Amino acid sequence: MRVRILVSFKDSVLDPQGQTVKNALHTMGYDAVKDVRQGKVFEIDLAGATKKEAERLVPEIARRVLANPIIEKFEWDFLKGE
Amino acid sequence: MKFGVVRFPGSNCDFDTVHALRDVLKRKTVILWHKDHDLQGVDCVVLPGGFAYGDYLRAGAIARFSPLMQEVQAFARDGGRVLGICNGFQILLELGLLPGAMLRNKDLKFLCQHVHIRVENERTDFTRALRKGQVLRIPIAHFDGNYYAPPRVLRELERNRQVVFRYCDAEGRLTEAANVNGSMANIAGIRNKDGNVVGLMPHPERASERILGSVDGRAIFESLILSLERSGPARRPAARTRARHDR
């Protein structure tokens, strides 16, 4: 079973890379763009884990390694179609 | 006394740091490999600059899981002196030995230049050879040096006088322009509550000889030598030492 984890800055933390992308989009004329937040995506293969085990493991891995809880938040989901 | 400089895959200031400690300050210095479990009886651990594990994931995020870092953590808990320089500072933050986190520099540029920092707390084992308010000229070289801490943590840092260095101009003023990486409260270096762990972004080892354009960084190493040679072995509660020279 595979999961996808999205790590991004907390709303309270400034994201200069997202800001730069937003400014670039504005320069290109995409006035509809209100805000951009940049993050990281991880796809993890949990071969052999049950759904229940995955639900315990993934948040633990995200908190301990993938995200720095001081500045980042994460969300995750199972990858479908497999 | 004996210094130990930790080497990770991707460390690149390890030789400079060893040179400053061994050849300039004339103290016994060993290199500690990150996969080892033995601190070889050192009195002070220095985490040097560089890009441990290529800074993959986040700067310092992987290095903190090295076997030796578990020893360093125990050493620090027992009151051992630990100095983190640049990438070493980032590792200490990821390890949780120091509070806060690093963000990308505010202008998204790698900054490699001399900066001025002001001594905010001269009553630490890492700054006792310096005066309060003294301005040092030391180089920085980093991409992720924009110090961040949640408001509650920042208040606590200030209340406990844990800010050791702040970016300033040549006259010691804390200006926006001098705060090159955008750090909160111009923070360039902090200590833990007990005072035995310090991290800073500037590189004192690159400012330890006249030929390098500045000798201002040397006083940080000299402070450590003063502290450790005067007060004996490092492995004892740091709080006691602090009480002694804070009087």
Polypeptide structure, described:
The complex is a heterodimer of chains A (82) and B (247). Chain A has 82 residues and is of the alpha+beta class. Chain A has one domain (2-78): 2-Layer Sandwich (Mth169, Chain: A), CATH 3.30.1280. Chain A has two helices and three strands, in the order E-H-E-H-E. In chain A, strands 2-1-3 form a three-stranded antiparallel β-sheet, covered by helices on one side. The longest helix of chain A is centred in the last third of the chain and has 16 residues, at 51-66. The model of chain A has no long low-confidence stretch (mean pLDDT 94). Chain B has 247 residues and is of the alpha/beta class. Chain B has a single domain, classed as 3-Layer(aba) Sandwich (Rossmann fold). Chain B has helices at 14-24, 67-77, 87-95, 151-159, 218-231, 238-246, and strands at 2-7, 28-33, 44-47, 81-85, 101-103, 111-119, 135-142, 146-148, 163-168, 187-191, 197-200. The longest helix of chain B has 14 residues, at 218-231. The radius of gyration of chain B is 16 Å and the shape is globular. Chain B starts with a strand and ends with a helix. The model of chain B is unreliable at 234-247 (pLDDT under 50).
